[in-house]
Fold these 4 entries.
Entry 1:
Amino acid sequence: MKIPQRTRGYLAIVIAAVLFGVWPSLSKRVLTEVHPFVVALLIQLVPAIALSPSLRRLRIARSDWPLLALSGVVGAVAAPIVYFYGLERTTASNSVLLSNSEALFTILFAYAFLGERATPREYLALGGIAVGAFLVTTQLRFGDVQFLGFLIGNLMLVGAAVCWGTSNTASAVLLRRIPIFPLLEVQLIFGTVSFAVLVPLSGAPLAVPSDILPDLLLLAASAVGMFSVLFFYAFRTIGAMRTGAILPTSALWGILAAFYFFPNETLSVVQVVGGALMVGSLVVFYLFRGPTETRAAGETLKPEASDGPDSP
């Protein structure tokens, strides 16, 4: 039995949300031993090498280069710098919470610039996902979140989310004309080349401790490479707004990843309720999904999200 394309899109973003949830805890572990610039270089270099064959016979229209450069510089250079330095200046719980703001900006930008809309019932389910993510990440223990004590780091994480939301919007437009693998490869090249210059200029040591190397490779392969492919595939099949709406479920997986890396922690009742609300809302969001709306003829910002190709 063939799985419908839109269903594959929802499955792709659900899996991507799991990988996205692992990102903060895994990054926090790696940053304890490796300089942020070196982390940003290596986690983009590894998938860039793996995807390099996709550049064969690639042709990019001259009119697409400004948008492609914007997505590469903002998403693969500026965002990692701000994110990793912000991550060093805040707590793990704050990073899980604030990582979800990328989904918020992706939804807002899809609404404002891509002309995407959802049905009233989808908006209701979206609200349920947001509330569930809020419960999972905060546990309603606001004294532990320490926003004021880590204000600079928190603001940097939000700034990184704005950068990635901007890059996501540009990518959603470019995916209408450029296949997933080549687009991702060009963006990774932007990041790899930029950090290859920044690392020696900063004087950061390239040496990676052997006990951290597996975490770094896992971060590169899963949280960057696999996540980006699945994320872009969801863009093409269900649209940027619905992709961004489901991404906050990463908070649940982020908490579970934190328990794996820090086994002394336990789930609270509030987190169990929040996780159930997120999963239930996700099911409702899928069951009551509506068709992706398109703009009037002549308006080209909205990608043909529901009619993308079957393969990257």
Entry 2:
Amino acid sequence: MIKHTRGRALRAGLAFAGLLCLSTFLAAAQPAPLMLPPLADPASSEHHAGKAIWLELVTPDLAVAERFYGSLFGWSFHALHNGDFEYAVAWLRDRPVAGLLQRELKSGERRQSAWLTFMAVRDVDAAAAVALAHGARIITEARTYPARGRHAVFADPEGAVFAVLASQTGDPPDYLAEPGEWIWSSLQVPDAGADAAFYQALFGYDVYDLPSDDGLEHVILSSDDYARASVNALPVDAVHRHPHWLNFLRVTDAGDAAERAVAAGGRVLVEPHADRHGGRIAVIADPAGAPLGVMEWNSSESKEEPK
């Protein structure tokens, strides 16, 4: 069973110079649909509302990003072209794990590269109606990609940017992520309770409070008896910290991953430290500043929702 303490350690602790304007980048990437790989191959009949099923990076230098993530997590890359921009699909052995989109930052822009989280839904348009009714705003209108499915991008009521995706081939099954795969998502917002209620309305999550020794609110979001994400309140003095999703990749050693990130041109934002579940986590930034987490996970520990 998943520990009730997992989300507490994934608290907001980052001060970003300014998140990348995903709406600008995604709007620029619309001239022709990309031929993205299916998320489930062979096709699956599984659907897991609220599961993070795809991650996408917007970066000013695709080659630098590929070298960084390839050396750190063993990803390989397959380039896709439509004549308007550069895009690569990252693979870990036989599974696609992420997309990387190159978009140049203009001189003087106070923006930062960032990862975008795609959450599973059955019907993007129905999800959009619910999201808007509960205070979200549209960043990018719904769009369909051959073989992949249909997605749209939103900002939640607190301003955190996320996407919803209805996979054409069904959702990937629930399994324990291998090292180099995404294992956890953590939302950092001023009002954790209010934002958890928004995502519960959107995805039908079960919501579980986490015990806390910092006086802040932390909750677990789960669906289909499987823990999906945590929502964590930002400290009241976090005036320069923006609401955001932070995604974690599984690693065998968080300290080693942090050292190799620095050697590959990245930075350590939160030093490796013990999570209450017994492993260690750290938060790093890639050479363009995109933040992500690394997390150790005991293979004997389940991600089933708390009972």
Entry 3:
Amino acid sequence: MKTFLTVSVFAAVAAIPFYAAAQTPPPPPPPPPAAATTPALPPPPGVATSPGSPGALASPAAPGVMPSPALGVPGAPATSPAAPGAMPSPVVSATLSAAASPAAAPAQPVKSGWTNFLIDNFQKGGPIMWPILIVSIIAVAVVLERAFWWIGRWMRRDPKRIEKVFTAIETGDVTEASRLSRGSRDPVLRMMWNGLNHQHASLQGALQVAAGIEIKRAGRFLVVMDTLVTLAPLLGLLGTITGLIRSFSFLGNEELAVQAVTGGIAEALIATACGLGIAIFSLIPFNFFTSRVSNLEFELQTAATNLEVMLEAQTKAREVGIGETTTPSSATRSSI
């Protein structure tokens, strides 16, 4: 039971990040960068300004050089070299600031594709996905608990000690057999020790009680797994029905019909797939653990039968020995 509680708590803690990720809304997109503007500065002395744009700077006028065509004076060359100390244009400054703004924005955390896939499908599956999630957590917890128990039982097996116990019983040393089986964690040895200690009252009854306790321990939570195997597909079928109902409820609205119907069908298929997946995941371990319980029951029954036969043979041999020692004396008395 402690192992099951530990595994259940671990599974619940592992599901908390998934639940938080499903409830957390996606981060809002970053706002578009605002174009930075450079305030107009007064031109330095000796620099002429364009009459069409107040505050814009132009190349300084030099003697013998005609003004630029941009100033409305024809006959000047198309380009002029930048004069030292000339201020940049406000349009150029705004363009450079806008180009540099996205690079300075902080990088948003990007989720992995697998996490986004799980969260999106969980949300599209509808409200029936919450019971399916609970069923899946219970299924994982039960499978892990039973797997750990059977691994521990396999490590506790002690076939050599069982052979020593049977050898001691064959030689008639029941006390040594009881000592060898005492304190063992092997289910077969525990049953044999219980039978050897209660053979004077009821050997068969003691063996049956001990074997029943061991089988009950081995078959713990199998009823839960059987229920999950049946319940998970039914929940998926319920999600299918609710998804189809949601799809057909939007058929009258032509504007939302296509989008709503496809969303309802997706909900139905996702719920069905999740329910079937949980059932398949639980069915294979359930059949495996059931077969292991059957094997353990056969081992216990075989060991109990061998123990009864050996003890009965020892009792008969003891009675025959006692009869052989008493028969000559009685014959002698009768002859006398």
Entry 4:
Amino acid sequence: MASVAGDDLTGQFAPGRPGKAIRRLRSFPVWRWLILLIVGAYFIVPLYAALRFVGVRSFGKVVHQPGFAAALELSVKLAAITTVLTLALMLPTAVYVQLRLPRLRRLLQGITILPIVIPPVVLIVGVLQVAPAFLKSTPYLLALEYVVLAMPFAYLSFDAGLRAIDLQTLVEASSSLGAGLRTTLWRVLLPNLRASLLSATVLTVALVLGEFTMASLDLYQTFPVWIVNFDQTSGPMSVAASLLALFVTWIFLLAIATIGGRRAQMAPGPQFSVVPVPRDRGESR
């Protein structure tokens, strides 16, 4: 009986055995597979129909259209600048509020949600009234506006990540070892906030690559603005441009997620060592 039970437990928990994977697959309800198929068809069927309508050769024609490279380059540049500024502003703010001002966390959450509630047209009109003259003639003003739009997504991502760890203990342990605030933030907190950092980056990049209202009102031809302007000349070519914009965004987000996932897997986990403690001479054995 002991050998049979041992073999059963070994077959159940041994790595590399297909039995456990098969049991998990069987325990997956049928209705979940049905929902996945419906959702997949909802997204894939329109994309396939659009691809059949324009043809694969249309993508090569879109790339060679005037203004395509400049618009895509501007959108990628704005995405990089916005992501760096958003992470540099929101991460220290979230850490400081979690450590020093925990009572104001809900108030700050409400403030960060305001860019979602207020229409972008209202935001851009207010920004154009108070922005300095030297920023109005550069695309960097648009990057600062995108930072405001990305603020809710980044802050809420960092807030959720900070609440999942024991922040106070980590900061106190790092300070007791002589580390400063910058060292603690870079070498202690960031490795524990990889998931939050990755989600904030992905959401910010997706927001910048798909934003149209502020860029059009600022009279900058980003990639979404170029697609809308190009839509007035040719129907099939505009559909091909929209599909290309969707594929480019997917490629960027997939690259960010892949790089972040590989770094998380390559990062060494916590290592522990057992140090023997000598007994006192008077202790009984």
